[in-house]
């Protein structure tokens, strides 16, 4: 019995009037998410980054040349509040990984851009990140990965709409 099955058994004993079957999926997804985050953060920390800082650098790198976005865009791409984004940008700027400047199109707006050091760091970190994700998925067969991706894609599409 895994961790979730033990919890389900306890609830089934204590509350036989409730259907605890949903915990089989939701509980396992939650537990897997926690365990995956721990494994992913090991790579980020090797590069001196938190998960959120990695996300900011990755969002800037994905933007393509000149590797810049407005702070509001970064918040949307990383699902972080603008206040939380400011703290991340402050730390990345202090580390020489990003710069901030006024927007050419709107003098009131700001633009955050990767520095050369930031681009080199995120390229190295992302390369190791992808190898780490591959390692984590290697616990499953390619058929299982394909089936899982299909199910998660369908479910996420419904939840996001």
UniProtKB/TrEMBL annotation:
Protein name as catalogued: DNA-binding MarR family transcriptional regulator
Domain (HTH marR-type): residue spans on this chain: 1-157
InterPro entries assigned: HTH_MarR-typ, MarR/SlyA-like, WH-like_DNA-bd_sf, WH_DNA-bd_sf
A Pfam family of this chain: MarR_2
SMART domains hit by this protein: HTH_MARR
UniProt KW keywords: DNA-binding
Domain of life: Bacteria
Example GO molecular function: DNA binding
Keyword DNA-binding attached: yes
SUPFAM superfamilies: Winged helix' DNA-binding domain
Record flagged with keyword Chaperone: no
